[in-house]
């Protein structure tokens, strides 16, 4: 006699199923926003987090506060570099015609949609930077190293020291 229990189809618990449905609904809403007329390529969420790349975007309020601090620190006509901090970069770009320039140094090539402001960056090669990023050419560097390791922080710090005129806004979970 065959055991009918072996033919049972696995089922999710009601809690897990509800969480999955909520995730799918949020995903549909994000996609709907992207296809609507009001879509802004610089909005947080326009490029989604990739956890495989250790990406965790800031919430809108945090990204805005960090961007505003960077603008104040850079001053009029200032230059801002965002290292592995794409949501801060996006908030800076949302500010439009403000009197500063900004670039993003990022490993994720999806950010190449931002054109010349995108610089491919691999923290493993901290000084492998293009010629248009000479030493001490940024009024402030905003950085959020992608990994919570001493090695990553040290190598990112090498890039920061190379680029900044002195001002740094460093966001990390490492205890210093």
From TrEMBL:
PROSITE patterns: N6_MTASE (PS00092). One of its GO terms (cellular component) is cytoplasm. It is found in: Cytoplasm. GO terms for molecular function: nucleic acid binding; protein-lysine N-methyltransferase activity. The keyword Cytoplasm applies. InterPro entries: DNA_methylase_N6_adenine_CS (IPR002052), Efm5/EEF1AKMT1 (IPR019369), Mlase_EEF1AKMT1/ZCCHC4 (IPR041370), SAM-dependent_MTases_sf (IPR029063). Keywords: Cytoplasm, Methyltransferase, Transferase. Pfam families: N6-adenineMlase (PF10237). GO terms for biological process: methylation. It catalyses: L-lysyl-[protein] + 3 S-adenosyl-L-methionine = N(6),N(6),N(6)-trimethyl-L-lysyl-[protein] + 3 S-adenosyl-L-homocysteine + 3 H(+). Transmembrane segments: none annotated. This is EFMT1 methyltransferase. The gene is Eef1akmt1.
